[in-house]
TrEMBL record:
SUPFAM superfamilies: GroES-like (SSF50129), NAD(P)-binding Rossmann-fold domains (SSF51735)
Residue intervals of the Enoyl reductase (ER) domain: 11-322
Entries under SMART domains matching the protein: PKS_ER
Classification via Pfam families: ADH_N (PF08240), ADH_zinc_N (PF00107)
Name under which the protein is recorded: Quinone oxidoreductase 1
UniProt-listed PANTHER family: QUINONE OXIDOREDUCTASE PIG3-RELATED, QUINONE OXIDOREDUCTASE-RELATED
Gene designation: qorA
UniProt entry keywords in alphabetical sequence: NADP, Oxidoreductase
Amino acid sequence: MTKAIRIMENGGYEVMQYVEVEVGDPGPGEVRVRHHAVGLNYIDVYFRMGLYTQPLPAGIGMEASGFVEAVGTGVTHVKPGDRVAYASNTTGAYAEVRVMSASALVRLPDAISFEQAAAMMLKGMTAQYLLHSTYHVKLGDTILIHAAAGGVGLILCQWAKSLGARVIGTVGSEEKAALAHSYGCDYPIVYTREHFVDRVKYITDGEGVSVVYDSIGKETFIDSLDCLRRLGLMVSFGNASCPIDQVKVADLISRGSLFFTRPTLFNYMATRLDLENMARDLFDVVIAGRVKIHVNQRYVLSDVAQAHRDIEERKTTGSTILIP
């Protein structure tokens, strides 16, 4: 028997139960992984609350790192003893040990620690597709990143800066502004102190930004549109405040024929080749030092309720991990 977090119903922090589970041998195409560290992401909150649905009872958590304990038939790209990491669209990472599809796993370079890997797979590959596929950030672009001191935000700031972009970011406090600035955000805006639209317009001499990366949702949607230049792109990739309930075409037209997209990671890494390419890009920039992954919060797995409370109350910065 081993320990894992299970949710029997959707709801608040209390629905996550730390229980004993039995983990068997992997079947065809599967592996058994012993986790060393597990990543915490805001999408986990969505699954817990039921904003994103799944059959219950269920596991929770989407990224982790550890060792392969056993492989099923047909698995050739990893073997027992390999250091591995993953971001998977099948929940269940909040566990000491799990059996899962081998297709989600990539081998972890020795230069990257287990804690770094657990903190960066989902967030880092999200940053990869946002910067290289959803919009190709290039030298001279000015971009706006909401929640710039968060897990995805700090990776986006560093990576975009290394590509030659001018980076504007919104944060909730002076401390978070200093953190974002130290990670490459040229202009951190404390949204509790000043209206970010006005500040963006001032920074860009009224032109606006090329792209907005918005993980907040409904609360910032219209103001984000107002930050864009003519023909700019609004990228809504999260719902930390509340989902956007509707998008009015007139809002896009009147602001300069804007573009809008609501992407998700797992559409961008739908094939094994996509996954390998994205993971390689991420590993390369981390190993080269262009993107630094620092774990700012650690919780033991049994304290997962406190971890969820802190991330929802916006008390966390950067990456957070759970230790099984």
